[in-house]
Amino acid sequence: MITDRRQPGTWPATGYEARPWVRSGDETASRRALLQVRGDYRAALPPLIAAVPALPDPETIALADDASRELARFDAEVGMIAVPFALILLRSESASSSEIENLTSSAQQVALAEIGRSKSDNARLVAANVRATTAAIELSDRLDGNSILAMHDALLRDTAPEYTGRWRSEQVWLGGGGISPHDATFVPPHHTRVPGLMADLVAFAGRTDVPVLIQAAIAHAQFEAIHPFPDGNGRTGRALLQGMLRHGGLTRQVAVPVSAGLLHDTNAYFRALTEYRAGKAEAIVTAVAEATFAAIRNGRALVRDIQAAAARWDSLVVARSDSSVHRVKEYLLRQPVVNTRTIAAELQISEVAAQNAIDKLVDAEVLTQSSAGRRNRIWQAPEILAALDAFGARARRHHG
């Protein structure tokens, strides 16, 4: 039995240790600047939490319980709707998580990236984040070190494959100068400590004596304190949060876009991560719970907008019940930018049938052509793109 004499509402704080700084010799800076970064620096030393009782104060527990009930309710009600909202909400979660890292892109560009036709680097990064979140959910039945590495690989394998497949092997830091960690805002633990800290985090994530939302919030904050990768920690950490919500059974059908709630007030989110390191775990639990309420309000509005568009399309498109145009309509709800090749491949129909369906939808003003000319044509569903962009606008209304 674990015993703990801490009072509810306390959590072991992150410590710090002195580490010697060894210059690489490749630094480009003035002699004065180089002289100022000599000597030891202080690296974080996060506590081991695998066996620490999670003891938030009663008010935080009650808030987390309320948020958990809302999560389960929203998951159940959206899961009963026939149209494919799981992927819509997953993309919305991934776009919001990316925007927290200042990676912004329109819904149109993200949809273009998903069919390999976007020229936007940010859009391709958001599409990669969709893969990372998908991996987190698919691997949620076995949350371990390998599954976290797989999430990170899904995120960065196309843009920074040199960082994937392993924990970091160098010191990283946030803020401050680029030549040393001496003036950094935060210096995560030395890389030699990362494997042990991640094994401890995985052990904490596997516990069954902590309420799921509280456990997921704390695990996310601990992950960010460890910062186990050279890049992609924020997005991978929020994908892990989604995986833990699924692992714990709070979500079964959809990825509730919690990151959209965090995006609503990123300053409060980053403050909560800082307070977690100071031994105030209730701050990040509160931030995730409040983000959950905001995300569900926004998610319900998105669902209503998509349903309204689908209903309008049904009233405009007249075709036999077995016509492929109906399947294309449903596909557009989750992939609002298409070409004949992607429709044919996804629905396993001929490109001629795909083009015939597109033509019917253009005549009904469901689709508009978004590329010039007759070669490599692309069509888009403006109502779905508008709904997705409106979701993003609501999420960032008080951003910053």
TrEMBL record:
SUPFAM superfamilies: Fic-like. Coiled coil: none annotated. Residues 143-290 form the Fido domain. This is Fic family protein. Pfam families: Fic (PF02661), Fic_N (PF13784). InterPro entries: Fic/DOC_N, Fido, Fido-like_dom_sf, Fido_containing. It comes from Arthrobacter hankyongi.
